[in-house]
Design brief:
Number of strands: 2
Distance between the termini: 58 Å
Shape: elongated
Number of helices: 6
Number of domains: 2
Strand content: 5-15%
Order of helices and strands: HHEEHHHH
Strand order of the largest sheet: 1-2
């Protein structure tokens, strides 16, 4: 099983080569430092995202400090896990209700469009 340092110099210099090695040797990789699974194949990621047993677990594995790069990763996970796209009902339903009018079809006011473009 390959050792993976997600913020090490090899990964930062060429993440594509590191992910290619993982896909070839350990596509569903247990990353012990973060106590989390690292999926490197599209089909595995797609299956995990569609599996209801894994819902609302986004980012929960990262709870303890583990180096300078992890704070940024924790911040990203916190932001994403609070977003509409990654939330489940009833929270998703409430958030969708707040923004739904902005995404409905409505007549376009051509005067606004012309003013904005000439701007």
């Amino acid at each position: 099983m390959p050792v993976v340092d997600l913020f090490g110099p090899d990964m930062l210099a060429d993440p594509y080569a590191a992910y290619a090695r993982l896909r070839a040797t350990d596509p569903v990789h247990w990353h012990a430092p973060q106590e989390a699974w690292l999926l490197t194949r599209y089909a595995d990621v797609d299956a995990a995202l569609r599996d209801a047993r894994l819902c609302n677990g986004f980012g929960t594995a990262i709870q303890q400090p583990a180096g300078a790069g992890w704070q940024t990763l924790r911040d990203i996970f916190a932001f994403v896990s609070n977003s509409l796209v990654f939330s489940d009902p009833p929270r998703h339903t409430r958030l969708r209700g707040l923004v739904s009018r902005a995404f409905t079809a409505h007549p376009l006011d051509m005067r606004t469009l012309v003013i904005a473009r000439s701007g």
